[in-house]
Sequence to fold (1106 residues):
Amino acid sequence: MHATLEGGDAFAYIQVELAPGETIIAEADAMSSMSADLTMKARFNGLAKSLLGGESFFVNHFTNHTSGPRRLTLVQSTPGSIRQVQLQGETLCMQPGAYIASTPDVKIGTRWAGLVSGLAREGFFKLTASGTGTVWYGAYGGLLERTVEGECVVDTSHLVAYEPQLKLKIQLAGGLFSSLFGGEGFVTRIEGHGKFVIQTRSIDGLANWLNPKL
Amino acid sequence: MNRPGSAPDSFEGGAFHPQLPGGRSMGTLRITGQSIRFESPHGGMEFPLSGVQVEMGGAGHRMVFFKHAQFPGCSLFTAQKAILKHPELERDPAVVAQCKQGRRRRLLAAAGVLCLLLAIPAGLWLAKDPVAGLIARNIPVAWEEALGREVFKDITNRVKTVASPEVNAQFGRMLEPLFTAVGSKRYQFKVHIVEDLSLNAFALPGGIVVVHTGLILKADRPEEVLGVLGHELAHVTRQHGMRTLVQRVGLMVMLHSLLGGDAGSAMASGADFLLGQKFSRDHEREADDIGMDYLLRAGIDPQGLVTFFEKIQKEQAAKLGDMAEFQESLTFLSTHPGTDERIERLKKRIARELKGRSFAPAVTDFKAFQDQLRSQLGGKD
Amino acid sequence: MDITIVQGPGSAAARVMLQAGEGITTEGGAMIAMSSALHVETTTRKRDSGSIMGALKRLVTGESIFLNHYTAHGRAGEVYLAPTLPGDMLHHEIDGVPLLVQAGSYVASAPSVEMDIRWQGFGKAMFSGESAFLIELSGQGPVVLSSFGAIYPIVVEGEHIVDTGHIVAFESTLKYQVVKAGGSWITAIAGGEGLVCKFQGNGTVWCQSHNAGSFGQALGPLLKPR
Amino acid sequence: MQIHIHRNGANEGPYSPEQVRQMLAAGHLQPQDLAFHAGLASWTTLAALMGELAAATPPQAAAADNRDMEYQVECRPDFAFLTVHIPGGQTLKVEASAMATMSTNLRMKTKVRGGLSRFLTGESLFLNEFTAEGGPGEIGIAPGSPGDLEHVYLDGNTIFLQSSGFVASGMGVQVDSKWQGFKGFFSGESLFLIRCSGKGDLWFNTFGAMIPVDVTGDYVVDTGHIVAFTEGLEYEIGKLGGLKSLFFSGEGLVCRFRGEGRVWIQTRQLPSFAWWTYPFRPTKN
Fold:
């Protein structure tokens, strides 16, 4: 399988070339265009992932049953950046809704994220990707990788993915006044050593920017 | 290229061939006695006429394609359907059938388009002011009020209204004669004073009138405030806001509903529009005239409208003049369309109709009212 | 005339350099900045051609009735053009094959390019997820189009599928049908793709990577009620 | 953007847009020379790239090194993200809600920005001040609007920003809003501006990408697309073109700039985007 990311940060999309016999799995409605003779089949996604992980009830399996390479273009529903991750046995944690596509050997699951996370509207569960293969995830905005040594603070709506050994705690941004009027609300405190990925814009931020002007 | 009068035998067209750069080339199609030939800077191709397949294809079946069993993977095409009229092709019964089918398809499409287009002139009519007025008059007053409330809510989200019952009652008394003179059966007027030091007042559809504290505090006489309000009330009773709204969105609504779009979107964006709206010059003039009628009927000296008009103009000029870097924009204000002309018009009418007529002062305790309002603002001016 | 697309694909703008005597026709509202040396004229039709019918037809496509003509009289000048939504722009030279463009995607064209409106047919109007009318650009010369999302070309040889709502423009040598996605109705509906557009023939179709409607549905619930 | 040049049968570079611009000006490169950069399908002439070069050239290149605080901007131009390194004991003013990441030693304090003009400009009434305590700290800032970000260093000069353009500034920068235009009784459209003066770093942002235009003489910009401009430029708000254009061009109001200075324009504008969201918004009840 040969896949390239195009469209920059603004409108990233995945150009996939499937060799004969290969399959790629993608969330529902991710297909933008494809060769007419690729086989597309909808499969049930599993209750846990769809109800708890913020994903669609069905995923599409695209398989190349022809004898030549075939082309497929996949996108996420919002503008924004996409990252491609090669997994070799390790696990990656993602915020609900970030998953776009994966190769068949990658296992997508859900994990309890904590009560506070749920109350902060970040979802009670998080998504995990594990196994061997490629997974694509994305979010609104650009994606930046950051390293934490010790601890740091991230606005809750900006965290997209992180390594499983990192500990997350949700807390107020400042005092009560600042949290209410400073617009920051809840923040996530990340503790440990490892990498995490943030989105440089959030749909919530966009809505907050637009709402006073509507 | 094409000879007028006789059937042309050369047509703009193209060819698809795997060996052409990009798989495609544009050039000329030529029909000779035995063959159809394609010529282009990238090379040529020739199909024998016997055995050539002619078919309509491409988007909307508007293009003529030529294929030949001896040349798999290749095709010639042209958008000029006149090629089917070529005597060499017209002999082929398959071509004649293709022509007929194409004609039927085009007729059907044309009929559909025509039906839709017939509705358009009707739509353009809507843009006419009298028609908009007719529609506006038939809009239930409840709708207008709802719209006005919506916009007012938007305002109160941003600025504070003066809550003091005494101030509001006193202001209400001051405006009472004007409201009586307007004598509208359709509208219940409600006045709100808003804490804003700019010289401004406006009336919303449905009868909500908003007056900025700046307007009251900077007036020398109550007649000045009443003059501006007479003008604004005329906007309400003449439904200028609704009429402009209907004119602007009427066409959109019709088209959207025609094409199954979201008609509501056009209509409900009215709130934003009303706050930032700009009345036509005719509407402003009409509001000036009718506003003055109201003032005269109420026995209020219309000179106030004129002097306040001039005051606003001067105030703005002075305010902007203070800022050195904004001096250039004075041109923008002073050339504001028709302001001078409107003042002139009002003055002329006063000179013509009111020679020697005297007016009783509107209220006696205007200064006291201003002081009371000022005290409500906590002394900040 | 020199056309450069800058800042694509996120918030592209087209910079059009006009030499003395040159002009360009644009959709109303597309200008964001320009040299003051350019002369602007607003009409309901393409310069030197067309009729009021053209304006009416453009109206039904949801485009503006009015077109602006920017002309460099005597001295060269530039004009920047941009669409309203975030997204990419495409500069394409029409070389004789008419181009069919989604209504709403047209931004500008050279005076040598002819413009007409084509009705898609009831079936496609209802189900293609695209506008009921297409704009046909023919003749010779540059055109500028826009879309929500990045624009990528697909050279079709045979058949290709494009999801509904992702077509920007295609060459008129291609024809397309609306068909269900996947082999069965279950896949079409459960897989979220529903109906798709199937292109047949030879030619290029330009797709937009993203669909404005999907983005609107993601953003909408967070916005102030209307 | 890294630009490769092909001329006299050989490849050169890559060069930055600024270098290419200078080499063109000096005559070392010719407009007909071939050029290529990532994202292009094929080689093209430098002449065809000119517009992109102008847009990609960092504004105020000479003064670009001037800064009080170290910073970097990533994900330009569509979702620009600003990271500022705040030296120990120093404070940075940041637009409310814009903080995305920060070191734990940054203390946040919310300040009310005064004046009725805040209501008029539609800007948030609050500003956050981030102070680095006990050592340097780092803050990542993501403005709400999708778009680009620009840094200018003020040294006694003044810049006018559109009302929602402010992102962050050092404490030495005075930010006050200037009211412009008049609405209501006299009817018309308004253009709200923030005036930034003093000494220090200033960051502002756009909706859509940013194109800096160096005005020498005369330039016309749609009022909705103005991001910022330098003091000293004369400007006048008016309509575009003749009588018919006045009503039907769909261009709204334009601003005519005159003199010498820089105008930053944005490639998208808010009102049409806000209009577009309408059908997707929830209905009341």
